[in-house]
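> @MW can you paste both from yesterday?
MW: sure, first one:
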Amino acid sequence: MEYNTPNTRERIAARRQQRRTAPSAAPPRRPPATPGPGQQAVPGLRRSLASWLANGRLLSLALCVVTVGILAYALTSPRFSVWQIRVEGNRILEAEQVAGLADALGRPIWFVKPAAVAARLRENAYIASASVDLALPDVMRIRIVERRPEVRWQAGGAHYLVDGSGKVLGLARESAPDDALVIADTSHLELKPNDLVDVDAVHLAQELALRLPVELGFTPAQIGWDYGLGVFVRAPLGQTIVFGRSENLDRKLAILNVVLQDQTAFTYLDLRPSNPFYQNRAPAAPAPVGAPAP
């Protein structure tokens, strides 16, 4: 029997040469990994959108974006600023003056506080009360109640308008009419708007101006006020009659009526004490020419 001659070395060299010259083979493809225990598969974009649409998330997101856009427009648009100011109840103050006191023209309506505007308006002496309302897109409504000047308070060389509560409203811009009640203040202090004068003096002066001419036939030449005396009146001939305060006014008027009816001569009459007293400091009449000296 014949055997083939072994050629092991030649075969090994041939295999090595074949490996050097053969092209590199692509690595084997790995199968897609499957999520192991405790892991969750990440869905794709299309599947996520479909899921959001099904459970309402996409609609909620769209509504949120629209809402934010509307809010940004409302907060920044000049359309939603105060451009119309409507004033009601004013008789003395001009509407433009009230609008200027409100200090809200052109401001975003969302940031205007009606309570703060009303408080700012009440700082004016003429405004007793104020209410403020807002209406979209650009309207402010102001309703005010004004104080009315009832008397003139003469002090420091000026006339001030004063209401029934004794509050100073401001300087009188025009000369006093003939029927105006003027109270002369002997202190001569200068006043400012929102200052208060003696309210009892205001009421007493008003009552004396009405009752003296009607009940006593006595028209005072002047009604005044003094810090120490209170209210007093000057008669046409210069006599001074002190009433003080409004307490016991009927008794004081009755005493004055008796003095006037009796034609008692006096230059100063004080009706404040329970037992009033009077003085007569009129200079004595000159003696006739040729008469002997006393």
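MW: second:
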Amino acid sequence: MTSLLELRNIHKRYDSGTVALKDMSLVVGEHEFVSLLGPSGCGKSTALKMIAGLSSITSGSIAWSGGGADHAHDMSFVFQEPTLMPWATVFDNVWLPLRLAGKSREQVRAQVESALQTVGLAQFARAYPRELSGGMMMRVSIARAMVTQPRLLLMDEPFAALDEMTRFKLNNDTLSLWHSARFTVLFVTHSVYEAVYLSRRIVIMAARPGRVVTVIDVDEPYPRSDAFRATPRYNELCVRVSKALVAAGEQSE
């Protein structure tokens, strides 16, 4: 596995004295799909924010392949809520990161339209967020993240608020995008079933303080379809991950 990103003994202590993460180490490879799974408060989202530069590191380091200090353009972030600008069209919402980079609408029109085509929303370019369903708004958020062509896509429980049918569909869409564009995904979820379906590896974290306690390989080939959810192997993996999650919840320092 060729490394893309390495977390080395990451430690996060807030001013209040709360330790969110302690000695968290993890290697994420090129074109991997890795899920972070653990009890509430174990630091999953904190880890993503530290990688994205949205939260400071108390100690430890984050190293990228090829070195360098500025990797802001190498990654995009999809949050739990779509965080769309309600006054802007779908096109303008997807254009936003390119606009902030100094690119005009005409310079990137083909790029934005391609991103919308990829998530199946080309015909909604002139629509406003209020005219879209929850699943469609999340697709816009994913298109906005994808339009910069990142090496790493950070996803923080992006489908948690959606109904099960929409969630399954977006799981499949995300895998399709990941397979075709060949970026790396670091995915935070509370769902064992979602983690097993999507991931190459599942990183189980324990809380108090947050740290990696188990890593489980999902040694099933891609592409995966809904039929995979009905297999004995899928059920076996879900049981194994569930037991590891329960064990992690019982660990504290």
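> thanks! The longest strand covers residues 3-13.
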